[in-house]
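1st attempt posting a full record on here, be nice pls
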Amino acid sequence: MTSTPTVTVPTPRETGCPFDVPKSYRQAAEEGPVVKAATLTGGECWMVTRHAEVHAVLSDRRFSADAMLPNFPLMTEELRKMVGESRKSAPEVDDQEHIRRRRMLTAEFKGKRVEALRPQIQSMVDGILDGMIADGGPVDLVSRFTLPVPAAVICLLLGVPFEDHEFFKDRSGVMLDFQAGPEAMMKARVELTEYMNKLTAEKQRHPDEALISTLLTKGELATEDVAGTALLLLLGGLETTSSMLALSTLSLLQHPEQLALLRADSSLVKGAVEELLRYLTVVQNGLARVALEDVEIGGQLIKAGEGVLCMLSIANRDETVFPGGHELDLQRGARTHLSFGYGIHQCVGQTLARAELQIALETLLRRLPELRLTVPIEELRFRDALGFYGVEELPVTW
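the predicted structure (as tokens):
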């Protein structure tokens, strides 16, 4: 790399609208689809900013998602150690065994299976809201609704006791917080791993109808591999969905004309969720890759061994694909957004996440027509230190 970095990743969001991407990212996108970037971990990489080019990188097998490769963006030594530990019972991220396991999980998250879960998800959402409403406002919507809903769903899916969800929330929060420090992050990972290993061993002795038991019964994975897979699903299905649900609620409250549209016509909810996924893009620091060979993307030669960050947040606002992309428009056709990634490493739980968001948002807005913030939005604390953007608390009443 011979050019001077034009942007630093991650960059904290400026004061003002909490849903805007950093100004420096927008400026970088104006320079071209691929620009040189510096990272706060001390390295350099290429930042891919436009929809077509991000799509191209994520679908190209010449770019690796293996975080253990040299120059993998945003990878600190502490994170590298954690990834190395998790590899002891897992295949390399790009090899055929990893792909086989992903396909195995994809089969468990097919549309028909998720559709069959909708009545149970609806019952859970209603039950959580019943308790919240009975207690009366004001409440913190994060702790009372946007976190318990995905926790209940992922626990149901895996067969994890729901009463342990606070344990997972605390430990996963530490694991994803770059400011927690390496010792705390490692301790949280060890505690989660030990818990899941014990639970998986128990499921082997006393199987049920949930996913952990299903994977054990198939006999295609060792017990420790099932435990590792379940832990990844638990972490992935909790923080991201909780953040999306909280930010979606907040953004709708801040866009009353869009909120009115959704309340007037609940059939808009599926399209609304796609637009919210595009507009908010909670994976705020992009998806990292390393080039395995020389590849030209967007007119820029990326050499073998160089790191790449696919900036989903900027690509999801590409004006050539989403005209007026910096605005929230629930009637926009946004299904081509990249919030779940693309290619062989895209999110395996996206169908479930969509169902959760659709059911939870529609129910919340229908049952609480007077839902509103109890503090100015300027007083809210947003999570910039985590890989997933979110809001710490959401004080509301109704």
